[in-house]
Design brief:
single chain, alpha/beta, Aspartate Aminotransferase, domain 1, Aspartate Aminotransferase, domain 2, 2 domains, seven-stranded mixed sheet, binds 4'-deoxy-4'-aminopyridoxal-5'-phosphate, cysteine desulfurase activity, lyase, Aminotrans_V_dom, Cysteine desulfurase
Length: 406
């Protein structure tokens, strides 16, 4: 079933805005995606009609609010095909989820002399938390490189996965190169050496979906705001066998069973990892975003975005002097590029004046830029509501940028 683009676009109020007098072309979905009315309405309804703190009150609204929060957990469990809602921890986002694992896993399982492996294409949020943990524990961070097309050197992984390695963390898809990594294969290889794997799903889940049982990863992290849901909410999936063993990350209300000054015991999963008042309204909004994507169909979304990627790649490559960074055969719908020696920021500024929103810079992946010896790129990233007409506008605008600098 293909996607009805006019109907989809009508679901996103912001898309009818003009910017600098031009109709908005929003191509910064990799940074954050726009929200459909359904999500905005769900958030509004929660605030207007149901707002009450969860898991505490003896009153009607608190019960209702708690029920909605736990329903949202079930929606997420179904969406990623986790075994149980005990494995779904709400966090503030991908970054918070990875920090949780880096801290708690590090506390329990990492000691001086151990190793942690990440890839060269990770977002800073899948590098720095591991560095912090390695520094604390006296462990070493090792790096799986990628080749000049932006494809991970899986051939080098067996040698990297020594018996000192405690955990491997890798992204499902790169936010600056677009590469889709063979995560199932990576997990199988790591597991053959008893090494658990964390997958950063921030750029994967809404483009190609995920089945955590099928890929068999140990942890999976993603953010609500990149998948048409609200900001400030995200998810950590963790296999129960790991979450049971990890110590809490943060302490406070809701994560305890009993507290005395002598000793505190912790709540059962998943609340053990949800200290303080949860973002229950964000969770409800995230569940609505997932229902929205499901109503369109992840396969239909993937097919539409693949067409956009193919079309945009061909059009951009037809511009003399334009170089694409990230030429892997399997990519999510984003393109990083440079136009001659024009500074990416200048390109971005001019595109903005023409109503086209893109991202410029390192995209929180400085090691990727270092690999190519560049200071940054222009990145266009497509969502389910983008069109080939918008790509034509991007193409025309890039020709204007070129003219202005030549
Ligand atoms: N990982 C990847 C691959 C990302 O693209 C991002 C967001 N740019 C993050 C992690 C961090 O997500 P958040 O800022 O929502 O925590």
């Amino acid at each position: 079933m293909s996607l009805d683009i006019n109907k989809v676009r009508a679901d996103f109020p912001i898309l009818s805005r003009t910017i600098h007098g031009k109709p908005l072309v929003y191509l910064d979905n990799g940074a954050t995606a726009q929200k459909p009315l359904r999500v905005l309405d769900a958030l509004d309804k929660m605030h207007r009609e149901l707002n009450a703190n969860i898991h505490r009150g003896a009153h009607f609204l608190s019960e209702q609010s708690t029920e909605k929060y736990e329903d949202a957990r079930e929606v997420i469990r179904g969406f990623i095909n986790a075994e149980s809602t005990r494995e779904i921890v709400f966090t503030a986002g991908t970054t918070a989820a990875i920090n949780l694992v880096a801290f708690s896993f590090g506390e329990k399982f990492v000691k001086a002399g151990d190793e942690v492996v990440v890839s060269e294409m990770e977002h800073h949020s899948n590098i720095v938390p591991w560095q912090l943990m390695c520094e604390r524990k006296g462990a070493t961070l090792k790096v799986l490189p990628f080749d000049d097309n932006g494809v991970l050197r899986i051939d080098l992984l067996p040698d990297l996965l020594t018996e000192k390695v405690r955990i491997l963390a890798v992204t499902q898809a790169s936010n600056s190169l677009g590469t889709i990594n063979p995560i199932k294969e990576i997990v199988a290889l790591a597991h053959s050496r008893n090494i658990p794997v964390l997958i950063d799903g921030a750029q994967g889940i809404h483009h190609i979906g995920v089945d955590v049982k099928d890929i068999d990863c140990d942890f999976y992290a993603f953010s609500g705001h990149k998948i048409y849901g609200p900001t400030g909410i995200g998810v950590l999936y963790g296999k129960e066998k790991w979450l049971e063993q990890l110590p809490p990350y943060q302490g406070g209300g809701d994560m305890i069973a009993t507290v005395t000054f002598a000793k505190t015991t912790y709540a059962d999963l998943p609340l053990k990892f949800e200290a303080g008042t949860a973002n229950y309204i964000g969770a409800v909004g995230l569940a609505e975003a997932i229902r929205y994507m499901q109503s369109i169909g992840i396969d239909a979304i993937a097919e539409h975005e693949e067409e956009l990627l193919k079309y945009a790649t061909e059009r951009l490559l037809s511009i003399p002097g334009l170089k694409i960074y990230g030429t892997a055969p399997h990519k999510v719908s984003l393109i990083s590029f440079l136009l001659n020696n024009i500074h990416p920021y200048d390109t971005g500024m001019i595109l903005d004046k023409l109503g086209i929103a893109v991202r410029t810079g390192t995209h929180c992946t400085e090691p990727v830029m270092q690999h190519f010896g560049i200071s940054g790129t222009v990145r266009v990233s497509f969502g389910l509501y983008n069109t080939t007409e918008e790509i034509d506008r991007l193409y025309d605008a890039l020709l204007r940028v070129k003219q202005m600098f030549e």
